[in-house]
Amino acid sequence: MAERDQRDQAVHRIPEVLRDAGWTVCLVGEEQSGKLAQVTAGLRRGPDPSGSGKLITSGFSYWGLESTVAWAHACNDLYYPVMRESIASFSRRWRGLSERLPDGPLHYVSLGPGTGQKDQALLRSLDSRGRCGCYIPVDVSAEMLRLAQREALQHLHVPAADVLPVQLDFSMPANLDRLGTLIRRTVGSEPVVYSLLGNTLANFDSDTQLLALLAEKLLRPQDRFLLEVAGTAGQDEAAARAAAQEYENSPRFREFVTSALLQYTDLQIDMNSLTCEGLVEDDRALKIKVIYRNRTGSELQLTLPDRSTVRFPDQDTIRLLLSRKYTRAGLEKMLVDARVTTVGETHEAGHTSFDGPAFGMTLLLLAPGDGTRPAGPNPFD
Questions:
Q1: DSSP for 126-168, written as a single string
Q2: Residue 191 DSSP label
Q3: How high is the mean pLDDT of the chain?
């Protein structure tokens, strides 16, 4: 009994310790050695010159200190306006939705918080109204969590006891079960705002299935889900090439996507071997694949984190990142299939030339439901 009292006292002392900003408490929700095995399995896939073979799956592009620093640099790159302008316009777009939130205190769960700048804007608006509850950022990368938490809480007075970073891969059903239990035990019946920002959903092969899984496992009637996606009005090959060019033009973005290769393989990086390929994905989206291709004219041997080797033939590829820009019809269908209902929506036109394709970012406030919603005009026209 005395030992239990000592443990309880130690737990209660943690918030006092955390008044020193140099400390970060993080709950690790899964075995990290298993994540390394997933990375290795993706790099062991067979040869495929189309970019559908070897890959680094979503999340692992950001896993590790080098990748975290490279991503932070890319978000501020003048040649990567997609993310930079998305961050700059977020506060304005969020204000258009904040009045549609449930009443009372709100807890905020950020799935993939990125650099934390958007989380700061959201938390600031809640804090200014005295409605800020717990802040729970969730990411597969501990380094990204620390970066995001530091930025998100800057100049805010959120008590240390109300901040709970969780290192977890939220794309796995079993992990979502555990995360849902943790959140419900933490906040009780009070409403939660979840977010998946920065077009992160588009990085997953099974994007619709992931959104449906998040809604099923996490959302209660009183909760809301903030989803940010990139969109397109055009869906032809010219628009696909323009979408890919947005990524290819940024030196910092190229450094970011190749940082994972430097971390997980012994490959000597040649930036001329990196390409961004734009494709038309049925009638639902423009798909962008960021691919590293062996252009040496000979077969290479890659050494993986477990010290095993894998063949990397000439013209074989490694997919480093997947992204999309959704059509209005594609977005509508995805929401219906995920069984969520739109409560509110704001849109920001993207950075483009006067005769270029119309791209943009849409911020949606969602609630659990059957996914039905009235058809609306295309904001990307």
A1: HHHTT-EEEEEEEES-HHHHHHHHHHHTTT----GGGB--EE-
A2: -
A3: 87
In 3D space, the residue among 347, 343, 293 whose CA is nearest the CA of residue 99 turns out to be 343
Q: Is the pLDDT of residue 342 over 70?
A: yes
| Tokens 């079960």, located at residue | 177
User: Residue 357 in 3-state DSSP?
Assistant: coil
**Mean pLDDT computed over 137-164:** 88
Whole-model pTM over 0.85: yes
Q: Determine contact, residues 59/264, Cβ cutoff 8 Å.
A: no
Question: Taking CA 379 as the corner, what is the angle to CA 216 and CA 193, rounded to the nearest 5 degrees?
Answer: 30
With CA atoms as reference, report the closest residue to 44 among 303, 314, 291.
Answer: 303
Residues 81-119 have pLDDT tens digits of 777 778 888 989 998 898 898 888 899 999 999 989 999
**CA 271, chain centre distance (Å):** 25
pLDDT computed for residue 15 by the predictor: 60
CA dihedral angle for residue 164, residue 199, residue 153, residue 168, rounded to 10 degrees = 20
Look-up of token digits 């640099």:
73
The contacts of residue 92 (CB under 8 Å, 6+ apart) are 348
Taking alpha carbons only, the member of 182, 192, 200, 189 closest to residue 224 is 192
Q: What are the beta bridge partners of residue 217?
A: none
Which of 184, 109, 191, 183 lies closest to 152, judged by CA? 109
**What is d(CA 323, CA 335) in angstroms, rounded to the nearest whole number?**
18
Cβ proximity of 147 and 75 under 8 Å: no
How far is the first Cα of the chain from the last one, in angstroms, to the nearest whole number? 67
Tokens, residue 367: 């609630």
Three-state secondary-structure class, residue 72? helix
DSSP H helices in the chain: 2-17, 32-43, 65-74, 81-98, 117-128, 142-152, 173-187, 207-218, 237-248, 251-264, 328-337
Q: Is 156 within 8 Å of 127 (Cβ atoms)?
A: yes
Instruction: Record the tokens describing residue 37, joined without a space.
Output: 């095995």
